[in-house]
């Protein structure tokens, strides 16, 4: 992989200098990891998402980051989990890991660790050999467009027992990104605001994304 672009080098420094939230694993929960795959196309920074099929066990037909559950028989750590799952889902092998974000709980009883990575420039961004059992199609999202605060909102979504949780939603050209993926994306955009003015302008637009208050999602644990 060629030399790391300046903005990604700075992002790597920011990620590695932050003290991230590491969540304990409650009874009945499993660990998982996802990758936030960054790439540059037409002078824009982008994130690669996937649309899940109806065949998967969790979050059917939703927009998500590539990733999956930790497999102790294959993975030494959660970074390996994310890289293995990305390769299995969309066939991407050349990824430079930049750092990790805060863990989050999900309603499907996972503790998810988000990994941020840079995708090799020679990767087939159409993912023509993706795993069709898990992935319906891939979605390429420009960071300087998804960061437009006018396309972001929260909704009170009911959970088991009638409880309501305020969940982030993003509308990207008609594609709705929400739930755990929306929460991770909001956290990632918050991190991008810590870059210097030039890189922040380059990646998200200096006045577009206002830092959203970090929320404690620990109450998603089932009692």
Question: How would you characterize this protein structure?
Answer:
- It contains five helices and eleven strands; from the N terminus they run αββββαββββαβββαα.
- Helices cover 23% and strands 32% of the residues.
- The N and C termini lie far apart (46 Å).
- Strands 1, 2, 3, 4, 5, 6, 7 and 8 form an eight-stranded mixed β-sheet that branches.
- The model is unreliable at 216-223 (pLDDT under 50).
- By secondary structure, the chain is an alpha+beta fold.
- The chain has a domain at 6-145: Nucleoside Triphosphate Pyrophosphohydrolase (Alpha-Beta Complex).
Blueprint of the fold:
Elements: H1 6-17, E1 30-41, E2 44-52, E3 63-64, E4 67-69, H2 78-90, E5 95-100, E6 104-105, E7 110-119, E8 135-142, H3 143-146, E9 152-158, E10 164-172, E11 175-178, H4 179-192, H5 197-204
Parallel strand pairs: 1-7
Antiparallel strand pairs: 1-2, 1-4, 2-3, 2-8, 5-7, 6-7, 9-10, 10-11
Feature tags:
single chain; 223 residues; alpha+beta; Nucleoside Triphosphate Pyrophosphohydrolase; 3-stranded antiparallel β-sheet; 5 helices; 23% helix; 32% strand; disordered C terminus
CATH architecture tag of the domain at 6-145: Alpha-Beta Complex
The secondary-structure element order is HEEEEHEEEEHEEEHH
Shape field: globular
Q: Which structural class fits the helix and strand makeup?
A: alpha+beta
CATH superfamily of the domain at 6-145: Nucleoside Triphosphate Pyrophosphohydrolase
What proportion strand? 25-35%
Mean pLDDT: 85
Rg over alpha carbons: 17 Å
CATH third-tier fold name of the domain at 6-145: Nucleoside Triphosphate Pyrophosphohydrolase
| Major beta sheet summary | 8 strands, mixed
CATH class of the domain at 6-145: Alpha Beta
How much helical structure, as a percent, in the residues? 10-25%
Helix count from the secondary structure assignment:
5
User: Regions with pLDDT < 50 over 5+ consecutive residues?
Assistant: 216-223
End-to-end Cα distance? 46 Å
Total E-strand runs: 11
């Amino acid at each position: 992989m060629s030399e790391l672009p300046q903005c990604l080098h700075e992002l790597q420094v920011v990620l590695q200098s932050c003290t991230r939230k590491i969540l304990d694993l409650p009874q009945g929960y499993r660990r998982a990891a996802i990758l936030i795959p960054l790439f540059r196309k037409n002078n824009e920074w982008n994130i690669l998402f996937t649309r899940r099929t109806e065949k998967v066990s969790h979050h059917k037909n939703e927009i998500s980051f590539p990733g999956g559950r930790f497999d102790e028989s294959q993975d030494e750590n959660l970074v390996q989990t994310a890289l293995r799952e990305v390769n299995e889902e969309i066939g991407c092998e050349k990824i430079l890991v930049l750092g990790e974000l805060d863990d989050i709980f999900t309603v499907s009883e996972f503790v998810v660790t988000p990994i941020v990575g840079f995708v090799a420039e020679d990767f087939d961004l159409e993912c023509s050999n993706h795993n069709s059992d898990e992935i319906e199609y891939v979605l390429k999202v420009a960071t300087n467009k998804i960061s437009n605060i006018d396309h972001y909102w929260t909704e009170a979504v009911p959970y088991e027992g009638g409880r309501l949780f305020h969940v982030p939603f993003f509308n990207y050209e008609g594609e709705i990104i929400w739930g755990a993926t929306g929460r991770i994306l909001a956290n990632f955009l918050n991190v991008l605001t810590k870059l210097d003015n030039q890189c922040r302008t380059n990646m998200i637009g200096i006045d577009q994304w206002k830092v959203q208050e970090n929320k404690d999602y620990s109450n998603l644990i089932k009692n």
